């Protein structure tokens, strides 16, 4: 069984060294275990080159069976965990940076008080993560549709609002229609060439308009865009959860409130986890806690 689980990890991660790092072994030990497995089965499972690994035909069939066995073993362990008196252990959760800082991080202290035997590692990362290769328990992704192959639970609707300071609007005028934005200084995402093309939909009529914007400040982080809006540099697109406090304090105001920005980073925040029937209690506790807390949040 140990050799088979090592084989599964090597194939999932695509290299001996990556598998060794996750398993706490040396690359040479992983190589020996793979050689022992091939010797025991009298078949070659992997074709090795200097650049990558490739399953042989028989290796692909053996991998599928070994994967089933490893999943079954995990399920047995998770059944046992269900009967632990209370959730315990470390939960590794990856979250987009701005959402993690503004929404998730403030909720963690209360969770830790409620579950004194559970620890949380909060990983703020805007790059796409993978539960297996990145050794995560849970991850949050903002998207219209959660990815296939993972269990998903919706946490919160994510909207953008267009905002500016009163000072900027007094100097430049208030846009009354999306087309007016082309004459304003706009603060946009700037990760891809198309990020300066804002797609807006009227909240009532459903009319859609795309407008090309320009400005002197561009940033791929919503906190930086908020700071630029507060510094009177123009009209910024901001997730509502980033802008909410400044709006409530009347430091900035919403513009074109009848229009919804629909270009990027909108939809729902989903918490994703492996589609196992027996989710560890520590993960279930955090999922339920976040879902309960965020169901009370209000959208703009």
From TrEMBL:
CDD domains: PBP2_CrgA_like (cd08422). It comes from the Bacteria. SUPFAM superfamilies: Periplasmic binding protein-like II, Winged helix' DNA-binding domain. Residues 1-56 form the HTH lysR-type domain. PROSITE patterns: HTH_LYSR. Keywords: DNA-binding, Transcription, Transcription regulation. Signal peptide: none annotated. Belongs to the LysR transcriptional regulatory family. This is LysR family transcriptional regulator.
